[in-house]
Every structure is written in C-alpha cells, then in structure tokens.
Amino acid sequence: MQVRTLQHDTVDALCWRHLGRTDGVVAETLRLNPGLSAQGPLLPAGLAVDLPEPAPATRPMVQLWT
C-alpha cells in the first residue's frame, strides 16, 4: 500500500495512522523504502512511502463447551 506523507510526519506516525500499529511495521517499512531513513526523522510533505500490507484481522475463537 502506498501513502503520502504529511508535513513533519515520522515513519512511526505514518505506520500508526494507516496500519494502527508500529510493532514490526516500522522496520518493514524502512526495508520496503531504501533511502527513506536518509530523509531524516521528520519526513517532507508529499513523499510517497510504501507500507506493508495490513495483516487480516483475526477474531479470537471462544470455545463454549469442552
């Protein structure tokens, strides 16, 4: 999934806003976008960034009887 940054976005904030989590996603985002870390901690507005595809939501299974 490709998204555009807002002014003064960070990779962490971008992942949180679009994927709802940062655990493991920030590292994957940096891997998908070589050179992104060279932009510095605050990204410029309008930069196209590839994010990893969101994992499908899984619902916990509840067993009523054993």
TrEMBL record:
It comes from the Bacteria. Pfam families: Phage_tail_X (PF05489). InterPro entries: GpX-like (IPR008861). This is Phage tail protein. It comes from Roseateles depolymerans.
